[in-house]
Amino acid sequence: MGFGCTLVADDRVRLSVAEGSVIAQCPATISGLIEARGVGILNAAHVPQAKVALVVDLDKSETARLPQPRTITLLGCDLPLIYRVESPHFAASILQILKGGWSDR
Q1: Which of 14, 56, 16, 13 is nearest to 34 (CA)?
Q2: What is the rounded distance in angstroms from the CA atom of residue 42 to the CA atom of residue 34?
Q3: What is the biggest distance separating any 2 CA atoms in the chain, rounded to whole angstroms?
Q4: What is the CB neighbour count within 10 angstroms for residue 19?
Q5: CB of 44 within 8 A of CB of 30?
Q6: I need a labelling partner for 80 at 20 to 30 A (CA). Which of 35, 57, 68, 94 fits?
Q7: How confident is the model at residue 105, as a pLDDT?
Q8: Exposure class string for 62-78: b at 16+ Cβ within 10 A, else e
Q9: Is the pTM of this model over 0.70?
């Protein structure tokens, strides 16, 4: 959200498939809410659902300088997958992937 994105859900999300795409939806009980650790539960502008375009696995660390493309299958749909990178540019890199994708070079 700090990079201009809009909240769908925090902590829990419902996934479904529509027209060949994975769709993320927020449970009604937490709609429009986000936890700021050490600050509290905050109200936030949100959308009821969004198409999932990228999966980021925060449990695994990327070790390759230029990793090969990965995918993960969720609900029968293949999605691009990246692992966590220990770098200050990681969040901005995710946003750039969503805006422009990867280079073929």
Answers
A1: 13
A2: 5
A3: 45
A4: 6
A5: no
A6: 35
A7: 66
A8: eeeeeeeeeeeeeeeee
A9: yes
